Amino acid sequence: MPWFGLGVFKVEEGPELVNAVKAAIRHGYRSIDTAAIYENEEGVGKGIQEGLAESGVERRDLFVTSKVWNADLGYESTIAAYEESLRKLGLEYLDLYLIHWPVEGKYKDAWRALETLYKEGRVKAIGVSNFQIHHLKDVMKDAEIKPMINQVEYHPKLSQKELQEFCKAQGIQMEAWSPLMQGQLLDHPVLKEIADHHNKSVAQVILRWDLQNGVVTIPKSTKENRLAENSKVFDFRLTDHEMNRINDLNENLRVGPNPDNFDF
Questions:
Q1: Is 38 in the active site?
Q2: Could you tell me if residue 149 is inside a domain?
Q3: Which end of the chain has fewer CB atoms surrounding its CB within 10 Å, N or C?
Q4: For residue 131, what is the domain's CATH number?
Q5: Binding positions for substrate (predicted)?
Q6: So what's the pLDDT on residue 2?
Q7: Which of 38, 82, 97, 154 is catalytic?
Q8: How far is CA 92 from the centre of its chain?
């Protein structure tokens, strides 16, 4: 799984989406993350097909993720949802399929479905999204296969250290959604100071912090200049002191719903 990818949450179907996916592939992105509820899988699929054709990159070199929505959680319904996502994306398989939210009483049946898809070789990897420690423990109690990924809200104001340590101990890779806190951190003085020191943008510093903390990251952007800028995070390194300064910004502050208290 690539350490770095493109997220397309809230990007509507249409040319902007298709062009963003194509531009991402052109700028070296090899991971694309979508979900059934984003209602943009068809555009993502079109961008992938055109991006591969134009770049000469092969499908096997891309890592494509989608997620089953809450209304489809259940054994048969999750398998059907997977097939529908494949149809919309125009792909023969997904590299990663996730349970989007831990809906009580439903996610364990959905996990059995993901295990079936994995064992049949129809998906390369399976995981969850927005699962807290107690959700993960509950799944693993009866699971034959451990979740491979836990994709959660993760940024300097919500660093989820306890969850990250648990995932690490269990061999579950953590992945960040909303790594830039929907743009709310781009004027933060501490981050600006560190960015200026490295002659980088605040976004690049945050994404580098993710990577050095061992967290896969999928920032969202539709602008080609931002896509290019965001990807330039492998040519510098934050010092331990800088990492600690950013770690200290944690306030357990969410911009998205709380996985223990959501009603959708």
A1: yes
A2: yes
A3: C
A4: 3.20.20.100
A5: 100
A6: 97
A7: 38
A8: 21
Question: What residues make up the domain containing 41?
Answer: 6-183+215-220
211 phi, psi to nearest 5 deg = -60, -45
Identify residue 148 by its one-letter amino acid code: M
Asked whether residue 44 is assigned to any structural domain, the reply reads yes
Residue 226 lies in a domain: no
Whether this prediction's pTM lies above 0.90 is answered by yes
In a domain, 173, yes or no: yes
Q: Which of 99, 89, 25 minimizes the C-alpha distance to 62?
A: 25
The total domain count for the chain is 1
Q: In what helix (H) or strand (E) does residue 176 lie, and over which residues does it extend?
A: strand 173-177
List Cβ neighbours of 46 (8 Å cut-off, separation of 6 or more).
Answer: 18, 21, 90
pLDDT tens per residue across span 138-167 = 999 999 999 999 999 999 999 999 999 999
C-beta of residue 31 within 8 angstroms of C-beta of residue 63: yes
Separation between Cα atoms, residue 236 and residue 231, nearest integer Å: 12
Give me the torsion for CA of 135, 139, 145, 147, rounded to 10°. Answer: -20
Q: What is the H or E stretch that residue 175 is in?
A: strand 173-177
Element (H, E) at 68: strand 63-68
